[in-house]
Description:
Number of helices: 8
CATH topology of the largest domain: D-Maltodextrin-Binding Protein, domain 2
Mean pLDDT: 86
CATH architecture of the largest domain: 3-Layer(aba) Sandwich
Order of helices and strands: HHEHEHEHHEEHEH
Amino acid sequence: MIERFRSFWKNESDKLEGKTARQKAEYVWEYYWLWIVGISFAVFMIIFTVYRATTAVKDHWFYLMLADTRAEVGNDTELWDGYVAYSGYDPAEKNVEFNDEAYFDYSKNHAAGNQYYNMFVGFTDAGVLDAVTMEPDKLSSLGESGRLMDLRDERCARIYEKYKDRLIYSIPYDKEYSTDPVPIGIDISDSILISRYHIYENGCALGIGVQSGRIEAVEKFLDYVCGGN
C-alpha cells in the first residue's frame, strides 16, 4: 500500500514539475475536485459535530406543550421571556421549551393517527414533557389516557395543596388504576394565559406529564401565570 502511494505521488509530482502555481492549482482542481469537496465536507462535519457536542444544550429546565392554540406563545415570545425571568432559569445552560405547535383532541377517537398526539405520547413517556395546557374539557378527556400525573402523588403535594380548589378530574381508561375520578389537571382559566394572551376561547387547564421529573419547574410556571396564588 505504501509503495503504491509513493509511486502515485511521484507520478503526480512529475506531471506538475515545471508548471506555474496557477497551472498546478488548475490541474489539481480538474482531476481531484471530487476528493477535495468530499474531504472538505468530512472535515466540516467533524468540526460541526464536535462543536455541537461541546456547546449544545443537552437537557431541559422545563418543557411545556401549549396544545391546540393559534396564539404565538412559543419560544422567545413575551410569555416565554416572562417565565424565564420569573424562574431564574438560564436557557444557555438548559432548554426552556414552549411548544405551541401541537394540535390534537383526545376526545375525538382518542386522537388515533394524529401525529401531534403521537409526539405528545413520545415526549411524555420519555420524561421530556413536563406539562401540557388545553381547554379544561379537552384536558379532562386527555386524562383518560393515563399520561397525566395523578396530582395526589406526593411529588405534587405543594401544587395539590396550593391549587386544590381548581382541580380537574378524569376517569382513567385503565380501570385497574382507578374506577373513580382522578385529579389530573388544574383549571387556570383566570391566569394570564387567558386574560393577556387569549390562547383559548373556553378556559384553560394544565396537566403534568406522568413521567415528569421537574415538578418544581411546573410549580414555578403555575405561580407565574396565576400571579403567585
